[in-house]
Design goal:
- Helices cover 62% and strands 10% of the residues.
- The chain is of the alpha/beta class and 622 residues long.
- The two termini are 46 Å apart.
Length: 622
């Protein structure tokens, strides 16, 4: 089994994890599998606090950006005073001082430009780093949810909201750094310089500017419902798009292209309407500010001319009043526009966070411990369970399975068989009783250690759009190439894998679409071999296969089951004929329990099911 991995090109091995946020153990502990990330959940309704929690991670870099922007704004506004000084020097014909005044102006302008570039250079690193942190943390939190969470939501919508959140934070950081903070500082400094010409003018313009900015901010907040509606509509479009793409074969099979295009067009129309209403509200605010600014600018210039006519202002003062007036009035405009834009992006951020940062349904206990060296003893003690809003599925359910036992779970649809497997994996918490492995309550164990003790071969095999190698290795990420080959050989899939176009490097397609059902099943078995867990769950593992594929898969399963505790849900009772024990369920209760031979000889549900299946096979053969 030490042979090299057969393939036509070098396999892409998993990249070593080299950062804290990429470490799967850390992700589990911080965001869900270790009990949920309370820090993130507490920020679900506080988008600004959520942003600051990531700013603090890169505090020094953000401080450099903010400091550089403050210096740049200071130099920018000071250049207007330097220009006034140069004009006054020229008007006074002070020839010896002209070049000093020129040097001062040139130096301030150069410093202005260089500090902006410093801020932009550092921001290109730190703002991008924040988006990476956000996406990693949200992904980790999202994957900590129970399977029921994903069953009730569109995957495309969830994925889109992670991207939306990261993009919204990136935009808000940029808006604050380049469009909100600079005009704020510029207005304050400009008013200070303006006071050197006429304190009354500075006071009046500051009151007007503050009132105008306050009015626009208040009106901007009034548009928040429109922005939230647009965010929800955009997320719905993303979810609809992914849902259709994932089921494109179904759409084609039913000739439903026109129907789906019409449905998607309605979604798009709803999103366009919501977006248009949001944008037009913003434009009304901008129009209000533009008209007000035009009037105030004209008034400020007229005031300056009157001062000059009275001899209370020099030519340089007129230049300073004009430029500072434009800075103040345009600054309030830019600030208002930027704040309005920020409101829209914060609304999208808030909507996304309220969806993604829901508390985890399943949490590890604060003192949860790992399951050490499990042997495979499984027990259900007085277990009660009902799905939310439904009738009880299990009530006073008791079952003990000794290590190494092969047990089949059979019964009519709805009897609770698959629920038993689901609860053993702790996909949902039970309402009463205990489920134990090796005498340890699974509610007291870390979910990671519980899952490492269990391998699953389902009817509908789940596969990533990755290579065959990566899909098998998913059972044991640090497995060697030789171990992967050994698992594939044990699962009887090595032969067909090396016949694939690129061998073990062949991409299997979305959900393994490039492989047949039998091939996917055997790769799932290889994955289970590689995992080497003491408990093996088989959920209708061969029911969807043709006879030839079923024989190959069954042979691989027989090899896989050796020495393991096996719980198999099966519709075809013939696949359980060599099992040690059969448990027959009806309406959530065990009605028969014994060896296959003993149950066949005993009147009851099992013998009736066997008889019906035998008659069905005879009819098919005829």
């Amino acid at each position: 089994m030490s042979q090299a991995l057969p393939r036509r090109r070098k396999a892409s091995l998993p990249r070593p994890l080299n950062t804290r946020t990429e470490n799967p153990e850390t992700l589990g502990q911080d965001c869900g599998m270790g009990g949920g990330n309370d820090r993130l959940e507490s920020l679900a309704r506080r988008p600004i606090a959520f942003i600051f929690s990531y700013v603090r991670r890169h505090l020094l870099a953000h401080a450099v950006v903010i400091g550089a922007v403050m210096l740049a704004v200071g130099f920018s506004v000071s250049s207007q005073y330097a220009l006034k000084h140069l004009v006054d020097t020229l008007m006074a014909h002070r020839i010896g001082a002209v070049w000093w005044a020129f040097g001062l102006l040139a130096g301030v302008i150069a410093a202005d430009n260089l500090t902006w570039r410093l801020a932009g250079w550092v921001a290109s690193y730190v703002f991008v780093a924040v988006t990476g942190d956000v996406r990693r943390d949200l992904f980790a939190h999202l994957t900590g949810h129970a399977p029921a969470f994903f069953a009730e939501r569109q995957p495309g919508t969830l994925a889109g909201r992670i991207t939306t959140t990261a993009n919204a934070i990136f935009t808000v950081e940029n808006l604050f750094s380049w469009n909100v903070m600079p005009p704020c500082l510029a207005v304050i400094l400009a008013i200070g310089f303006l006071a050197s010409v006429d304190p009354v003018m500075a006071l009046v313009i500051s009151v007007i500017a503050a009132g105008l900015a306050g009015l626009l901010i208040r009106l901007a907040r009034g548009g928040a419902p429109l922005h939230h509606a647009y965010a929800a509509a955009a997320a719905a479009v993303d979810g609809e798009l992914v849902d259709v793409i994932n089921n494109i074969s179904l759409v084609r099979a039913f000739g439903a292209f026109a129907r789906e295009r019409a449905r998607f067009a309605r979604r798009i129309a709803g999103e366009m309407k919501a977006r248009g209403e949001s944008l037009r509200y913003l434009e009304r605010l901008r129009l209000l500010h533009a008209a007000t600014t035009a009037l105030l600018t004209a008034g400020l210039l007229a005031w300056g001319i009157l001062l000059w006519q009275r001899g209370q202002a020099s030519a340089g003062d007129m230049v300073l009043v004009s430029t500072l007036g434009f800075i103040i009035l345009h600054g309030t405009r830019d600030l208002a526009v930027a704040l309005v834009d920020m409101v829209q992006h914060v609304a999208r951020l808030s909507e996304a966070l309220s969806t993604l940062l829901l508390p985890h349904e399943l949490r590890d206990a604060a003192d949860a411990r790992g399951l050490a060296a499990p042997r495979g003893l499984v027990e259900f003690r007085d277990v009660a369970f009902a799905y939310p809003g439904g009738n009880p599925v299990l009530k006073d359910f008791n079952l003990r399975i000794e290590p190494g036992t092969r047990l089949g779970l059979v019964g009519r649809s709805g009897s609770g068989k698959t629920t038993v497997l689901m609860l053993l994996q702790r996909f949902r918490d039970i309402d009463g009783g205990e489920i134990l492995i090796d005498g340890q309550n699974i509610a007291d164990l870390t979910q990671d250690s519980l899952h490492k003790a269990i391998s699953v071969v389902p009817q509908d095999v789940l596969m990533f759009h990755r290579s065959v190698l990566e899909n098998i290795r998913y059972g044991q990420p640090d497995a060697s190439d030789a171990a992967v080959v050994a698992a594939a050989e044990a699962a009887r899939c090595h032969e067909f894998i090396i016949q694939l176009p690129e061998g073990y490097d062949t991409m299997v397609g979305d959900r393994g679409v490039k492989l047949s059902g039998g091939q996917r099943q055997r790769i799932a078995i290889a994955r289970a071999f590689l995992r080497n867990a003491p408990v093996l769950l088989l959920d209708e593992a061969t029911s969807a296969l043709d006879s030839e594929s079923e024989q190959a898969v069954q042979a691989a399963l027989n090899h896989l089951m050796l020495g393991r505790t096996v719980i198999a849900v099966a519709h075809r009772l013939a696949t359980l004929k060599d099992f040690d024990r059969i448990v027959v369920m009806q309406t959530g209760r065990i009605v028969q329990d014994g060896s296959p031979l003993a149950l066949e000889q005993t009147p009851g549900l099992y013998r009736e099911m066997r008889r019906r299946q035998a008659l069905h096979l005879v009819e098919e053969a005829a």
